[in-house]
Amino acid sequence: MSASLRELRGAAAIAGVATFGCGEAKGFTDMELLARAAHAAVADAGLKMSDIDGICTASASATMWAMPVIEYLGIRPTYIDSTMLGGSSFVAHLLPAIHALQSGQCNAVLVCYGSAQRSATFGRKEVVASRRFLDPQPYEMPYEPMLPLSAYALVASRYLHEFGASRRHLAEVAVAARAWARLNPEAFMRDPLTIEQVLDARMVSDPLSVRDCCMVSDGAGAYVLVRADRARDLPKEPVYVLGNGTAVWNRQVSSMQNLTVTAATQSGKAAYDMAGLSAKDVDVVELYDAFTINTLLFLEDLGFCGKGEAAAFVENGGIAPGGRLPVNTNGGGLSCVHPGMYGVFTIVESVRQLRGECGERQVRDAKIALAHGNGGTLSSQATAILGTRETL
């Protein structure tokens, strides 16, 4: 870890967060959803849109997405980042934005995302079909797998075989997420869910049933990042960025060297090193759970348990309310919201937990949160460590 990155520990803080339209938001476009969340996050920070001079945003359906967003919001930023790494993008945007703030290039960065993929006439099915031409994967697409589902099913099959885990362990992840969602008024799926219901659900790609897969929803999320000294003068209690790391090892799942080890091992180490912390210091964990297997892999790769030990770690409600580790306290992508890319919501929920704003699902005395984003088919990984004022 270079001294310069360690010096950036706590140099910037998240001053405002917001979500909008989580679940079904009929009649809204991607841009309209994004704008609602963006304006709400800016207001939550005690700022005006005219104060925003930096922006980070990305979209699965538009390569030049930052330009229409800037136009729609009516801002003239001096810092722009539209790096697209899939669902991890909005966690990966943190460190470059901190550099821009510290250099004086800008003073307030808005990170925002919105998608109407559930309600839109041009939805996920059409986007996936278009990717065959716009984003070809030469070692996989000729065989016409159900991407991304089949990729994660392949990983899940290997994990169950290699470590002697079962579909019941995957089901524990889905049931825990639903238990948290039932405490969250914003969550889209709040009906009771049992292990047996997950195991008996329609098989989609063996060994993953429909309940092992994230939902398809609408929704938008946003947060505002400022320098730490400015954050202290804003209305909400700041949440400081203690560490951040991003890693990409592959695009196609068939190019992974080991199907049960992800680049989260690298992104997590970078974030921990910058923060000067380890997994044992973390109070609340928000993981990108596009599929139940993700949670098992990331618990291991981010150091919460050893490789092959996550199955036992999640047993008997280990990551559910009242368990050994609070994971995906909003309900995650499995039960709360998943509008194509989920990463921004890991940051929003982390901030809300550290501010103590989560009502029934609030984790007691939470001071340090880990937010982790995943993109593609276990392709990109980004990890953030966030903390309250007393962790500086």
What can be said about this structure in brief?
The protein is α/β, with parallel strands linked by helices and 392 residues long.
- Per DSSP, the total helix count is 15
Low-confidence stretches: none
Helix percent band: 25-40%
Question: Mean pLDDT, nearest integer?
Answer: 96
Estimate what percentage of residues fall within beta strands: 15-25%
Count the strands?
Answer: 11
Strand order of the largest sheet: 3-2-4-7-1-8-11-10-9
Indicate the radius of gyration in whole angstroms.
19 Å
The main β sheet shows up as: 9 strands, mixed
Shape: globular
What class, by secondary structure content? Answer: alpha/beta
N- to C-terminal distance = 18 Å
What is the element string, with H for helices and E for strands?
HEHEHEHHEHHHHEEEHEHEHHHHEE
Description:
The longest helix has 15 residues, at 30-44. The strands form 2 sheets. Strands 3-2-4-7-1-8-11-10-9 form a 9-stranded mixed β-sheet, sandwiched between helices. Strands 5-6 form a two-stranded antiparallel sheet. Helices cover 35% and strands 18% of the residues. The relative contact order is 0.19. The chain has 15 helices and 11 strands. It is α/β, with parallel strands linked by helices and 392 residues long.
